[in-house]
Amino acid sequence: MRITNGSIMNNYLYNLNNNLENMQKYQNQLSTGKEISRPSDAPFLATRAMNLHTSLDRNDQYLKNIEDSIGWVEMTDSTLGDMTDILQRVRELTVYGANGTLADGDMEAIAMEVGQNIEALAQIGNSNYDGRYVLAGQETTSPPFSVSGNMLSYSGDAGLLEREISENVSMSVNVSGNRILEGGTESLQDTLKNIMDRLESGQVGDLSSDSLARLDGHIENILSLRAEMGAKCNRLESAKSKNEAETLNMTELLSKAEDIDVAEKVMEFSMMQSVYQSSLATGARILQPSLLDYLR
Amino acid sequence: MSGIFQTFNVAKLGMLAQQNAVNVASHNIANANTEGFSRQRVNLETTQPFTYAGIGQFGTGVEVESITRTRDNFLDAQIRLENAMNGRYEASGTALEQVEMIFLEPSDTGLNSALDEFWNSWQELSKTPENSNAKTMVAQNALSLTDMANHMDGQLEALESDLTDLQASRVCDANVLIGQINDMNDQICRVKLKGLEPNDLMDRRDLLADKLSAIVDIETSLDEYGSMQISNRETGKILLDANPKEAAEVEMSVVKNASYDETAGEWTLTIVYRGDITGQDKTVTVGGASGDFQKGDVIFTDSLEDWEDGAVAVTKPLLEEGELAGNSLGIEKTEEYRNHLDSLMNGIALGVNAIHEETGQAFFTISGTESEFTAGNIRVNENIMDDVNLVQAGQAAGGPAGDGSRALAIAGLRNGRFDIENMEADIAGYVSGDMYIPSNDSGTSFDNFYKDLISTIGIDSQSAIRGAENQDALLLQLNQRKDSISGVSIDEEVASLIQYQTAYQANARVMETLSLMLDTLINGLGA
């Protein structure tokens, strides 16, 4: 083949430009730390990275949901615990009042303390989490419990608060107040009112034969609600650790998909650099001379 | 027997021939770096011999028979074909590269993350529906989503017009090149008629044809006077008649705007006549049977030089190669991506509205008079932007403050699979009490629908870039071959320079010898 000065020059420039383009590619990857900067670099990798980004982002949101839910469930649980304590105290007072040996004045004092405890029950029932009443069903903005004339009343609803904790998995995180009150054949507020009345009127027999058993039933009910909250809490905790494990996995996958291996890239870059430099050196040698240089 | 004076003539012809050859070598060296120049060669030939009875024939010297250029016409055709393919890949690659820059994925600032944030804000609202902050977040994130979609759509539209303008200017370039080749044809014919080879003019004409071939796929042929005829390869239509006085079969123009009248069954096209942006646009009407037109299309018409507005025969050539085809492809693809984006935004708007509107106002509204949502016309309802409490979070209007089930249902849309291009059908299955649009098993999620778009763009762009790279390498090879035939080698020219110089000197020596012989004859004999 006949080679001309022009073809040497063109060929040389084409290759030099290719080398420079490769240098730029590596330089870009090294300075961004990413394997790809646009979809056409590697369409499959680009959508995979986008997918992982989205999944990570969703997982972050689910983690926030789970943590909020755990807070809510724990708050509910401790509220129910406090309520149990109060009912236990009411039970002690009822047992005390039922033994039939107390003076009227003592019975009144006990009745007063039970009354105080009913107030306390309402107060605890109005506990809030982040400004929202936890036992109010969906009526989270107004206090659900109130007391008038020793009668506890509930103004919330029976609504459930649903939280999505992973894709297409949602659970309710609340216990509405009506489930606390309606724990047996007689409602909690009636049982408490009856205890008050019976203490005040000295119906000792009814206290021991009827009220105690009913009160026990309500305590049992709250305990089972606590057990439910405990189970929910466990479920949330395991969802959380699953979520965190997934995030860890996906972060690793994402890193594999889009991050460069710095050591490898630096190696490739310096190889490219020496190729580029030697092509420059070769150019200096082959482009200059012609027959003219040797005709004297 | 030949006389001394005749031999004088032989030496004189020799010197003249060598001198001419040196002139050609010097022309070659002078044009070593001239684009499109092909090396010229002097063809020397013996002059008519002289017959001397009884002895035989005496040579009478040398003459320049012709000066020819070394050129492989087959290679030229091949290079033009590959030029056209290269033009297509490069033009479409440039367009798609710009599309990629508009979408800017994968990144933390693209539409993908705006979508993520939009859905997440509904999740947050579902947890704290009492809180107007959460509603503000929903409204603001929706606004940044629609803003981004509007902006992207605007950029894509601008890209389409840019490409249409580019298309017009390339058609203009092509028409100018065709005009220049016509001028060349005229000059070349005149020289050819005298029986000479217009080497430099033919080089310049070939260079013009090479440039034209990158814009539009052409086939060239030469008539008996060496005049070049150019036709479009795909359609066979003649773009330049070999006769410089004859008009071409078709004229190339670019559609700037196309609208179709259903009742009349007629297209009205505003065309940039011959791609001349500075000239007056023409409006033509075309029957519906001529095909579908859109802006950026290249069209062939009869000459419209002295023509008034009205109906005219227009054909839309199916250009496959060349920059014009690449630009058309770029416009077509951009339009396709825009439609995809429109479907996505339409799907999201219809889905969110179906759930949201049941207890409140439409969440997304259309700006303007169109009936379907597009990426360009989607807006967040202004009433909602003014009063975020219009964002519906609960199952019932005015229901409990802590009920976030409707917000959760809207957030759940991202998990659903729908036939997004035909979202109306899926919306029809909406279960109002459950606030639930049944998933369509043959459908896809919004997230994936968008990712499909990005991967399509990536693949289209990648194949254009790779195609251009391959064509570059191929063209380099072909140009090497062309160069090896037509290129000027300085070494070679210098060598022939010395060769001719030596021959010139030798001829001069012959003359000197003859002069000495004459001296001997005249002065020596007379003494």
What would the average pLDDT of chain B be, to the nearest integer? 92
By secondary-structure content and strand pairing, the structural class of chain B works out as: alpha+beta
Structural Rg of chain B: 37 Å
- Helix and strand element order of chain B: HEEEEHHHHEEEEEEEEEHEEHHHHH
- Order of strands, main sheet of chain A, comes to 1-2
Number of β-strand runs of chain B? 15
Structural category of chain A: mainly alpha
Task: Write a compact overview of the structure shown.
The complex is a heterodimer of chains A (296) and B (527). Chain A has 7 helices and 6 strands.
Layout of secondary structure:
The complex is a heterodimer of chains A (296) and B (527).
Chain A: H1 5-32, H2 43-98, H3 104-125, E1 128-129, E2 132-133, E3 145-148, E4 151-154, E5 162-166, E6 169-172, H4 177-181, H5 188-201, H6 204-258, H7 262-287
Antiparallel strand pairs in A: 1-2, 3-4, 5-6
Helix pairs in contact in A: 1-7, 2-3, 2-6, 3-5, 5-6
Chain B: H1 4-30, E1 40-46, E2 50-52, E3 56-58, E4 62-69, H2 73-103, H3 111-127, H4 132-193, H5 199-215, E5 218-222, E6 228-232, E7 238-240, E8 251-261, E9 266-272, E10 282-287, E11 298-301, E12 310-311, E13 314-315, H6 323-356, E14 364-366, E15 378-380, H7 382-386, H8 405-411, H9 423-427, H10 446-486, H11 490-526
Parallel strand pairs in B: 10-12
Antiparallel strand pairs in B: 1-4, 2-3, 5-6, 6-7, 8-9, 8-11, 9-10, 11-13, 14-15
Helix pairs in contact in B: 1-11, 2-4, 2-5, 2-6, 2-10, 3-4, 3-8, 4-5, 4-6, 6-8, 6-10
Describe, in plain words, how this protein is organized in 3D.
- The complex is a heterodimer of chains A (296) and B (527).
- Chain A is mainly α.
- Helix content of chain A is 70%, strand content 7%.
- Chain A is built from seven helices and six strands.
- Chain A has a two-stranded antiparallel ribbon with strand order 1-2. Chain A has a two-stranded antiparallel sheet with strand order 3-4.
- In chain A, strand 5 (162-166) and strand 6 form a beta hairpin.
- The two termini of chain A are 28 Å apart.
- The relative contact order of chain A is 0.14.
- The model of chain A has no long low-confidence stretch (mean pLDDT 91).
- With 527 residues, chain B is an alpha+beta fold.
- Helix content of chain B is 54%, strand content 14%.
- Chain B is built from eleven helices and 15 strands.
- Chain B has helices at residues 4-30, 73-103, 111-127, 132-193, 199-215, 323-356, 382-386, 405-411, 423-427, 446-486, 490-526; strands spanning 40-46, 50-52, 56-58, 62-69, 218-222, 228-232, 238-240, 251-261, 266-272, 282-287, 298-301, 310-311, 314-315, 364-366, 378-380.
- In chain B, the strands form five sheets. Chain B has a six-stranded mixed beta sheet with strand order 12-10-9-8-11-13.
- In chain B, strand 5 (218-222) and strand 6 (228-232) form a beta hairpin.
- In chain B, helix 2 runs antiparallel to helix 10 (446-486), helix 6 (323-356) packs antiparallel against helix 8 and helix 6 (323-356) runs antiparallel to helix 10 (446-486).
- Chain B is elongated, with a radius of gyration of 37 Å.
- Chains A and B meet through helix 1, helix 2 and strand 5 of A and helix 2, helix 3, helix 8, helix 10 and helix 11 of B.
